Amino acid sequence: MGLALFMDALFPYLLSYLILVNWLLKLSAAWPLQGRLFYLKIYMLSAFGGFPSGAAILNNLVKQQELSRREANLLLGICHAPSPLFVIGFVGQDLLQDVTFSYHYLLLVHGFSLVLLFFIPVTKRTIQPIYYKMSFTTSIRESTPVVLVVGSTIIFFTTIYAVISTSLNPIMTDNYLGAIASLLEFTNGLHTLHLLTSGDTLRLLVVLLLTTQSLSIHLQVAVIVREQALSLKMYALIRLLYAIAIPLLYALIFM
Fold first, then answer.
1. Which long-range contacts (CB under 8 A, 24 or more apart) does 198-206 make?
2. CA–CA dist 86, 28 (Å, integer)
3. Residue 250, domain extent
4. Which end of the chain, N or C, is more open, meaning fewer C-beta atoms within 10 Å of its C-beta?
């Protein structure tokens, strides 16, 4: 079940974006951007690739000493959003049959992120251009571990959900099982919500889940940034801010 879900719903949207983002990061490394322009470049690449590509980008930049740990810790919670292809393709077209919802959500979450990005304190330093090997195959090889982390966590948490739902199904309602699915694994949670609800309730719950994600997504981030010992405290606080602000703003503006 988990493998089928990953291959059908996430893998087509994730792998190509991760490879392309990795390649674009290498191509743009020779441009010595500073301050907010450098942060903006990181954000645009992470937004293009979707989570957990933001964590992977920040981890690599700290590893290459292009970014301090303090800066990466502040950016980690902001450079974290679902890829536009996933939101438009899987959520908008496949689940809701309404791509307008996808455009509304993307406009809202990226607008909010850019506002937060403006208030991040800038670290002044001289940035020297870094020259990477521009091999496309190198980008593929470096993206593979991230894909493996994503696939492994999805399979693990989907399996846990299958065990829980099978054993507790006689004594728990579908709504409780849907909540457990959303808590454990992001993509399976979206699919389960689609089966249980509809209309404005479904849209608001999808906005909430797209913003809060699940244990699976946050574990992926934790595994990726562990290499450079990035802190998850600021990440947790910023994601909590998103979880409150984005559903509230969506309800006020679009409902």
1. 200/255, 202/96, 203/96, 203/101, 203/255, 204/247, 204/250, 204/251, 204/255, 206/91, 206/95, 206/96, 206/101
2. 24
3. 2-254
4. C
User: Number of C-alpha atoms within 13 angstroms, CB side, residue 103?
Assistant: 4
Quick check: 181 and 188 in contact, CB under 8 A? yes
* pLDDT digits 0-9 by tens, 41-65: 889 888 887 888 888 889 888 888 8
Q: How far is CA 208 from CA 7, 53, 222, 242, in A?
A: 24, 21, 21, 9
| First-to-last C-alpha distance (Å) of the chain | 34
Which tens digit of pLDDT belongs to each residue from 61-77? 888 888 889 999 999 99
**184-208 CB burial, b ≥16 within 10 A, e <16:** bbbbbbbbbbbebbeeeebbbbbbe
Q: How many domains does the chain have?
A: 1
DSSP 8-class letter at 41: H
